[in-house]
Design brief:
This protein is of the alpha/beta class. It has 16 helices and 15 strands. The longest helix is centred in the last third of the chain and has 22 residues.
Length: about 400
């Protein structure tokens, strides 16, 4: 942080998640001696946001920078130790900021769920990030903090209890209540748009190991849950839409962890729908709906109609009340090579995609700045589980309404 004016700059402060994040930093979690600024492309939107945050925000500086203005982004990055970016779709608006962070050695975190964009950024900028010391950490929201850290704490507990990691882990969404924002939907729509015109990308999106380093030797075929009876949870299970990004992040963590969880590591995610005939029918409906949705979203006119008339627009999303009343519970089961079993649970007290994501992302930026020493974690593209440690999990439990438990006991 030598010669840096700010510890953190929140870029995209007036976006849907950016507003929630700034509200959290201003009025809910006041980190001692944290110097930070709000940044965006519109002075009027920043002024409106600042006013809405109340008197506690009076001293928070505002910086102007457009995601397409490389000079302005470089100037912004020179002023801060960490950039938190909420500006998506990242595939459309995110590259120049990553480039600026890498070139200036500035640490960076975001909440992207766009695997094709992450892969492009790794291929274009990882070598330079290693040189400059910039730590780039993608997917620091609901995708993929709970999944990646849930697996991490389970594997640590397995190593302590059984003397080995689990070569097989699964995550099941036990409970979840929350809504979607226009920004998240726009990001998803853009993935379909890119894939519809790029055969190579369609193949890439079939590869669960697409985010693993080149030259990795993992060959185990990963599983996609369609509709199945999960005896570990006594419930039927169907597809979980976030599995496509979460699984890739967890598999990249396995590739980056020294010693690996396992060279034959298997990981899958699904959503529980209940037991009995009712649960089975719900799982089948979820599986059919997911398949039909994938097919329909590949058709340009249908994507346009859906984005135009059926889903929230960018900047729209769950109300403050919906964010506050939202929640989630994720269950993890790991199995060792000797068939021993261990469980973990991750819970959050807000809407997963926004209320909880904003707190996760804010604490990721703070932890990257204060808890992750540059001499211990070098520059490069990291995952949450490979860059953050116990201090970050403690932050999430103390300040972000999350809990991480092993076998029902506190971690």
């Amino acid at each position: 942080m030598i010669n840096k004016q700010f510890d953190i700059v929140v870029f995209g402060a007036s976006s849907f998640v950016g507003k929630i994040l700034c509200e959290y930093l201003v009025n809910e979690h006041k980190e001692a001696n944290l110097s930070w600024a709000m940044a965006g492309r519109s002075q009027s939107k920043l002024d409106t946001l600042k006013k809405s945050l109340g008197s506690n925000a009076n001293a928070i500086p505002c910086l102007l920078a457009d995601s397409m203005d490389e000079a302005a982004l470089l100037e912004m990055c020179e002023k801060t130790a960490v950039v938190i970016s909420t500006v998506g779709p990242y595939a459309l608006y995110g590259e120049l900021l990553v480039k600026a962070c890498v070139e200036t050695g500035t640490d960076y975190c975001d909440l992207t769920g766009e695997p094709q964009w992450i892969r492009r950024m790794i291929s274009r900028y990882e070598s330079l990030a290693v040189e400059t010391g910039a730590r780039i950490v993608n997917s620091c929201g609901f995708d993929s903090i709970p999944s990646d850290l849930g697996v991490q704490i389970l594997q640590k507990a397995s190593l302590e209890k059984f003397g080995s990691y689990c070569p097989q882990v699964k995550m099941r969404v036990v409970k979840m209540k929350g809504g979607a924002s226009g920004g998240t939907i726009a990001s998803g729509m853009n993935v379909y748009k890119e894939a519809s015109r790029d055969p190579a990308l369609r193949e890439e999106l079939k590869d669960w190991y697409s985010l693993c380093p080149e030259g990795h030797e993992f060959i185990q075929r990963q599983k996609s849950v369609d509709c199945e009876l999960d005896t570990d949870f006594d419930s039927w299970a169907g597809p979980f839409i976030m599995a496509s990004i979460n699984t890739r992040i967890v598999l990249r963590s396995n590739a980056l962890v020294e010693g690996f969880y396992s060279p034959d590591f298997l990981y899958d995610e699904a959503m529980l729908t209940g037991n009995g005939k009712k649960g089975e029918k719900a799982a089948k409906r979820l599986a059919r709906g997911t398949k039909v949705g994938f097919v329909l979203m590949a058709v340009g006119p249908i994507r346009w109609l859906v984005s135009k008339f059926l889903v929230p627009k960018p900047g729209e999303g769950p109300s403050p009340e919906q964010q506050m009343t939202g929640h989630y519970e994720l269950g993890f089961v790991g199995t060792t090579a000797e068939s021993e079993s261990i469980r973990a649970t991750v819970k959050g007290d807000r809407d997963p995609g926004y209320g909880s994501t904003a707190k996760m992302l804010a604490q990721a930026g703070i932890s990257l700045c204060r808890d992750v020493d540059k001499t211990e974690v070098k520059g490069g593209f990291w995952t949450p589980a490979t860059v953050f440690g116990d201090k970050y999990i403690a932050r999430l439990q103390k300040y972000a309404g999350m809990s991480f438990e092993i076998n029902g006991a506190g971690d």
